[in-house]
């Protein structure tokens, strides 16, 4: 299965997408992790991405896509994957759909984990990453909100979007996700 997780920072999409990838025995691909690794290694793309990440700005589509396309072409992704943090924009979603169509492997599911703003702020402040200052957190959440509505509409129109309530315990949220995945498998 090819699955996209959508959700603001702090919604739990990283935790849940890792768990789901393990359950389905497919790779978990976090664009955040891929970008941080490129920054850590000091690759040309990583250096460019680092300039954006350090100021709380989103890394431009072309840089994200370049890193991701290389990863999706690896052998372990041929039977599916869980994407965490990509696509973030309609343009990225359209490019992903085109790439998947070229390989005859359309996206199966887009899952949005929805959590209210106050809880997101609390979770992110408690997470305590070096790049998670309150100002940076608020900027990321605003950028997420600005970009996400059109993306959600895009996937809704393609009848692959499922909204998951992310307010409860990680176990309860995961059970909701598994139910959606199992129902999708039955439809096939």
From TrEMBL:
It is found in: Cytoplasm. SUPFAM superfamilies: P-loop containing nucleoside triphosphate hydrolases (SSF52540). It comes from the Bacteria. Pfam families: ADK (PF00406). ATP binds at residues 10-15, 127, 168. It is an enzyme of class 2 (transferase). One of its GO terms (biological process) is AMP salvage. Keywords: ATP-binding, Cytoplasm, Kinase, Nucleotide biosynthesis, Nucleotide-binding, Transferase. The keyword ATP-binding applies. It catalyses: AMP + ATP = 2 ADP. Catalyzes the reversible transfer of the terminal phosphate group between ATP and AMP. Plays an important role in cellular energy homeostasis and in adenine nucleotide metabolism. This is Adenylate kinase. It comes from Adhaeretor mobilis. The gene is adk_3.
């Amino acid at each position: 299965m090819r699955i996209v997780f959508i959700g603001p920072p702090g919604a739990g999409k990283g935790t849940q997408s890792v768990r789901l990838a393990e359950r389905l025995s497919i790779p978990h691909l976090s664009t955040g992790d891929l970008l941080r690794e490129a920054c850590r290694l000091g690759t040309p793309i990583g250096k460019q991405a680092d300039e954006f990440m350090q100021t709380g700005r989103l890394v431009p589509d072309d840089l994200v896509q370049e890193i991701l396309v290389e990863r999706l072409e690896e052998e372990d992704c041929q039977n599916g994957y869980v994407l965490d943090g990509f696509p973030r924009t309609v343009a990225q979603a359209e490019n992903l759909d085109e790439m998947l169509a070229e390989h005859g492997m359309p996206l199966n599911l887009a899952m949005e984990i929805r959590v209210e703003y106050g809880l997101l702020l609390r979770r992110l402040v408690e997470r305590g990453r070096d790049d998670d200052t309150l100002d940076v957190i608020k900027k990321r959440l605003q950028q997420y909100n600005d970009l996400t509505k059109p993306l959600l509409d895009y996937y809704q129109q393609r009848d692959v979007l499922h909204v998951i309530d992310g307010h409860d315990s990680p176990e309860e949220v995961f059970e909701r996700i598994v139910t959606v995945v199992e129902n999708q498998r039955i439809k096939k």
